[in-house]
Amino acid sequence: MKYRMAAALLSLVGVFVSSYLYLYKIGKIGTMACGTGGCETVQTSEWARFLGIEVSLLGLLGYLGLFLVALAGLQPPLVARRGVALLLVAMSGLGVAFAFYLTVLEVFVIHAICYWCVGSAVIIILVLAASLLDLRRTPALESESVAPHPS
Q: Partner of 128 for a Cys bridge, out of 9, 54, 61, 92, CB 3.0 to 4.6 A?
């Protein structure tokens, strides 16, 4: 349960980071606190959209989904369910793959590094790690929670 709590907390931090980036992108925040100028370069590049959707909005929706799944998975009927852990691993694994793709774009195409994006990549890697640890834990709990049927 502690790994699922960690995944929920980290996902909530990801919601805040991606919300900040999205609010900047839609003009609700005047300047971005970055220090290097790389964040603005990345956020205003043609690569800041994926399939016509702002990348920061995709991050916000992804982290929100992870947060809700992890939070729901903390409820007593779902704590020992392997399906919740599998869903968290799948969602965060997709997030790590997407973050890797975006980091490759930053380094080799855009030639600028956004510290907020790097922070988000670290967060999603940590969510995946917590989810994998949760997945490793769930089979033992599941087998203990199912009482054998008397014959």
A: 92
